[in-house]
Amino acid sequence: MFYNYGDMKNISTKAISDCVYRLARKAGLTLTDSCRNALMQAEAQETGAAKFALSTVLENERCAQREKMPVCQDTGMSVVLLEIGREVALTGGSLQDAVDDGVRRAYRDGNFRKSICDPLTRVNTGDNTPAHLHTEIVEGDRISVTFLPKGFGSENMSKLFMLTPAEGRDGIVRAIVETVKTAGSRPCPPVYVGVGIGGAFDSCALLAKKALTREVGSAHPRKDVAEIEREALEKINALGIGAQGFGGNVTALGVSCEIAPTHIAGLPVAINVQCHCVRCEKEVLS
User: Fold this and answer.
1) Residue 54 and residue 249: Cα distance in Å, rounded?
2) Is residue 104 packed enough to be buried (19+ CB in 10 Å), middle (13-18) or exposed (0-12)?
3) Of 220, 245, 259, 286, which residue is the least packed, with the fewest Cβ within 10 Å?
């Protein structure tokens, strides 16, 4: 089908850059509402050192908002997900350049730590770019922008499993729980666990990343997937690692799974671990 570009909605890359700037500035200073609520619920369940740890991270966010300072010293790799309506015509230049410009300005103006470097020389790029950009063409005439600053204390604990189909549902749950158990206190629990099920080696990991953009505590609409989320969370919280590794009832705030068809010979499962500091902001441009 061919389109008359005169009927398309024009959205400038400058508007995307400014949107990324706004989202990055906000995300650096605050937890998501669902994360904050989950932490408060966890604090109410705990006693002793675990309760103290949870009270401290909640007070830390209040301080960050009051003083306009980063809620975590690791202001993260800038992950940007764009859902671009097929009736949108982008104007004004390179999309990657626009996103990077928004990140660059936000990290400069927010006095956020710049953490991106060459993987071999370790030379810092100096402005937290390039952003990790993912785009998807969807229906409509809008652009949905999601900004996820991903710290690497938790990112380093993430894993990808190429399971056999015979391992099935039990193997998926086992992989999720084992990943969190092996990580222990290193990803600053209580963690939020994003899981990708299916796809291929590369797309499975992206599914896991997308799962972290869901609200903490939300359930997948597919009943069988939601059951995997529920069982994995229950088994993770039975590990007793607890907040900051002090023991207790809450090792994970939630488990969110995303799923895609895969090959008959495989069962890819990706686990993307997020620390207790869940930062994710969204905006729709129209």
Assistant:
1) 12
2) buried
3) 286
Q: Do residues 82 and 16 touch, judged by C-beta distance below 8 A?
A: yes
Which residues fall within 8 angstroms of residue 227, CB to CB, at 6 or more apart?
A: none
Burial 121-156 (b: 16+ CB within 10 A, else e): eeeeeebbbbbebeeeeeeeebbbbbbbbbbebbbe
| Rounded distance between C-alpha atoms, residue 64 and residue 117, angstroms | 26
| Distance between CA atoms of residues 237 and 189, nearest Å | 11
3-state class (DSSP) for residue 271: strand
Whole-model pTM?
0.95
Among 151, 174, 133, 128, CA closest to 273 = 151
What is the distance between the alpha carbons of residues 191 and 166, in angstroms, rounded to a whole number?
A: 29
Q: What is the mean pLDDT of the chain?
A: 96
225-247 tens-digit pLDDT: 999 999 999 999 999 999 999 99
Looking at residue 8, its pLDDT comes to 87
CA pair distance 254, 230, nearest whole angstrom: 9
Q: Count of residues for the chain?
A: 286
Residue 259 vs residues 6, 211, 231: alpha-carbon distances, Å = 37, 9, 16
Amino acid identity for residue 58 in this structure: L
Render pLDDT for 98-109 as a digit per residue (tens, 0 to 9): 999 999 999 999
4-8, 90-94, 118-122, 150-154: range with lowest mean pLDDT: 4-8
Token pair for 108: 């400069």
Mean pLDDT of 67-90: 97
